[in-house]
What we know:
Helix content is 39%, strand content 16%. The model has no long low-confidence stretch (mean pLDDT 96). It has a seven-stranded mixed sheet, sandwiched between helices. It has a four-stranded antiparallel sheet with strand order 9-10-13-12, covered by helices on one side. The radius of gyration is 20 Å and the shape is globular. The protein has helices at 8-15, 41-45, 54-62, 73-79, 98-105, 118-121, 143-154, 208-218, 225-236, 238-261, 281-290, 312-328, and strands spanning 23-24, 67-70, 88-92, 109-113, 127-131, 159-163, 184-189, 202-205, 268-270, 273-277, 293-294, 296-297, 303-307. The protein binds pyridoxal-5'-phosphate. Pyridoxal-5'-phosphate binds at residues 72-74, 96, 131, 135, 163, 165, 189, 191, 197, 202.
Amino acid sequence: MLEHGGHILEAAQRYGIPREEWLDLSTGINPIGWPVPALPLDVWRRLPEAMDGLAAAAAAYYGTSLLLPVAGSQAAIQTLPALRGVSRVGILNPSYREHAHAWQRHQHRVIALDEHQIESAIDKLDVLVLCNPNNPTGCRFAPDTLLRWRERLAARAGWLVVDEAFADAEPALSIIDHAGEPGLVVLRSLGKFFGLAGVRLGFIAAWPALLAQMQETLGPWTVNGPARWIARHALRDTQWQDATRQRLMHDSTRLAELLSRYGLRPTGSTALFQSVHTPRAQAAHEQLARSGILVRVFSDASNLRFGLPGAPNEWERLDAALARLGETT
Ligand SMILES: Cc1ncc(COP(=O)(O)O)c(C=O)c1O
């Protein structure tokens, strides 16, 4: 199993700080997520039904009806490699590591590519997998570029897999409305922008035969009734979505300014995190953790990723901890 952010209970044990005292900035999850109300009893008691209105709410939000809900986009990430014969798979690197892990586990030949190597490698690939915007670098690909790559891959029965887990705050980046074009697979998540990571709900958008194959492989009722109910209402709440898009953009800029003030100028970002390349990464991670603030340090130990604080006292706490950090690292 790969390492991920969000292991606050583990951190509590390791640093001897009670769970409720932690400020968890180790993920890219919106700290002020969609406000989940009390759920009707039926959604707990009855089996989930495909005609419950989730499909229509998702089609309105994503701009396509060629969608399959899955138990987190992770479920689609793990299953996609089983739906093709052994292939040469180019995967953006660094990126969300579950992609490479999943394709490798199914014996595909994985080729790590940085953003500048894709154009020249594409005609030798069967599948290209990337995140747009990318986690953790914040690198972005223009929709036109992606659609050209899709065409070149599809000409040889290849696939372009675009993970748009962080695209909700920047809808202009998304190519999900092109779902249905041959070879195009788009993944979305309710975990990040909606702040509903615990619900375990995401979507795969693709041409109908691939969606049918995915559904057949995953089996019935993979998304539970409460998750479907919550997603249906969150996806319909355009007022919350508009306000949240604005707030996240503002808060992400505020976080970049705060980090820069303390010598940690971000090298990449999305609306939900700021990434910092610094030789002080490991030391900074350790010292922040000792004051109860968990950030993500990446395995090459020179990259830190900061998620957004939520409440005003969380911003103040981070500010004070960064000030102390400047004095000692
Ligand atoms: C880029 C990216 N894609 C997908 C996922 C998986 O999200 P989920 O399974 O919660 O939808 C993550 C989680 O961290 C991610 O960072």
